[in-house]
Protein: Nucleotide-binding protein LK10_14675
Organism: Sinomonas humi
Amino acid sequence: MADSTFDVVSKVDKQEVANALNQSQKEIAQRYDFKGVGADIDHSGEKILMKANSEERVKAVLDVFQSKLVKRGISLKSLDAGEPFASGKEYRIEASIKEGISQEHAKKISKLIRDEAPKSVKAQIQGDELRVSSKSRDDLQATIALLKGFEEADLQFVNFR
């Protein structure tokens, strides 16, 4: 009997991120507390840039964006937002959306599988994803349950065969 496998990936729906960004822009343009403070959110390539004239306002812009991401089903573990920094007369926050499992996280996940998953389960790193295999489908389902508790990255489980 062949091994059963599944892949552990970390993917984000780009269209949902764009929708959340557009909704945030509309809300920031309409809200009274953002009038006259130069509040703005925009993206260029992979970076998302939030601007306002005070540190509190730029954090409020980030909060609006985070709430829109959550409403659209995107985990905040995928959002990598920096600290507010002054740039001339305005404050800025640069953020990006993380996709794929970094080598560091992949090693942590495979160590977790080696240490705590059933002994028949094997994990191998394949680029920015992990392939997990075992002869027993029940062991694989127990491994999925174990990995759902992994806090450091947003994980999805695909190609369960």
Notes: Residues 14-97 form a domain with the Alpha-Beta Plaits fold (CATH 3.30.70.990).
